[in-house]
Structures
1.
Amino acid sequence: QPIPPTPLPENDFLIIGHRGASAYAAGHTLAAYEMAVLMGADYIEIDLQMTKDGKLVALHESVVTLDNAQQAVADVTFDEIQLLSPGKEFDKNHLSYTLPNSLDLRIVDLSKILTYFGDRVNYYIEMKSPRVYPGIEEELLRQLNEHHLLNRDDPIPKVIIQSFSDKSLQEVFALEPSIPLIKLYKFSKKAHLTKKELKDVTKYAAGVGVNVEAVNHKFIDKMHSENLLVHPYTVNDENMMRSLMSFGVNGIFTDRPDVALRVRNDK
Ligand code: G3P
Ligand code: CA
């Protein structure tokens, strides 16, 4: 008998460290994730791609530049991907968050992240290009199960899965209905879902993740009236965080978890 999803707290303001504390360290590295945790983020956000050799890698881009040529992540091995530099060095203003020396700034695979953090953090995982990666849903669930991160009794869910692909989310829902799912949208104008879209999404999702520029009070109220949580992305401005919190959003994706913590603590 499947265990229903742990409800996400409605009245809370979850702080989701977008690619870790990615304003301060190269996103998707263990260092950026550890910094988000030290700052007090509720979740670390991980974008997932899958390499040619079947590794789930924490990476935003589905195409990378290797040997001066553009290549799909799906066509290169994880070892090749690791030759890339994730970029940005540490922000010197944030060295007060002392990190273990062993945390380098390399691109990592999901298994390394799960092994390193275990169950001491909560994971908010995005399946980035599921149509390009057949089997990514099963492999993700296999790893989460292997690390005993599913079907637990925690105050907030240990794992949330998000995607722009409803097909992919529905597949996860069919395989493992206990995981709260967030359907992502990117609106070019004001956020709005048709009746049909609402009917479809409420069948499987706990909430929606929406680009912050498109969000307004009316949309947030509408989602809440449908029992859908609202998690805008990506919110780095302190005043915007305050406004969104006063509008009752249920969490934000941010590159600056330290600022979001300050806002939440000021409440
Ligand atoms: O997953 C929410 C948000 O992160 C989507 O945008 O492009 O930063 O993955 P992106
Ligand atoms: Ca993302």
2.
Amino acid sequence: MAGEAQADCLFCKIVAGEIPSTKVRETEHTLAFRDINPQMPTHVLVVPKAHYPNAAALADADPQLAGVVLAEAGRVAEEEKVDQSGYRLIFNTGSGAGQTVFHAHVHVLGGNAGLREKL
Ligand code: 5GP
Ligand code: ZN
């Protein structure tokens, strides 16, 4: 069924507490934790607790939850104090774009002047 935990999914295991993570925020339906290999001073991942393979699949199946994930990303940026300086939200989608974990997640990246360079 859509959204069900997948036994072989790293982020489902993090959500279940089977793999430790450095938690930043948690709500009923979302978890935010620090990326294990940070690319910027602030590098937090926000995931829905339910399993969807990528952000588009999440938004298609549960647009409200997709909105909650985005709102949580904004709250993380505020708490990390990068909301004023600026931050970037990235959803890698597909292995060709660098997606390595196929559980929807948004990268919250900030605290680096390099962000001023546009993609
Ligand atoms: P993707 O490349 O799929 O967009 O992002 C996956 C992210 O998960 C990568 O930035 C990677 O560093 C991070 N990651 C991979 N394994 C772990 C882990 O066990 N714990 C945490 N906190 N992050 C992880
Ligand atoms: Zn999962």
